[in-house]
Amino acid sequence: MSFPTDRPRRLRRTETLRRLVRETHLTPADFIQPLFVVPGTNVKTEISSMPGQFHWSVDRVAEMAERCFRAGVPGVILFGVPTHKDEVGSAAYDDSAEVQSAVRAIKKAVPELLVITDVCLCEYTSHGHCGVIEHNEVANDSTLELLARTAVSHARAGADIIAPSDMMDGRIAAIRAALDQNGYAYLPILSYAVKYASAYYGPFRVAVDSAPQFGDRRGYQMDPANANEALREVELDLAEGADMLMVKPGIAYLDILHTIKEKYRRPTAAYHVSGEYAMIEAAAQNGWVDRKRIILETLLSFKRAGADFVLTYYAAEAAEWLLEESRHAR
Ligand code: PBG
Ligand code: ZN
Question: Is the pTM higher than 0.90?
Answer without folding.
Answer: yes
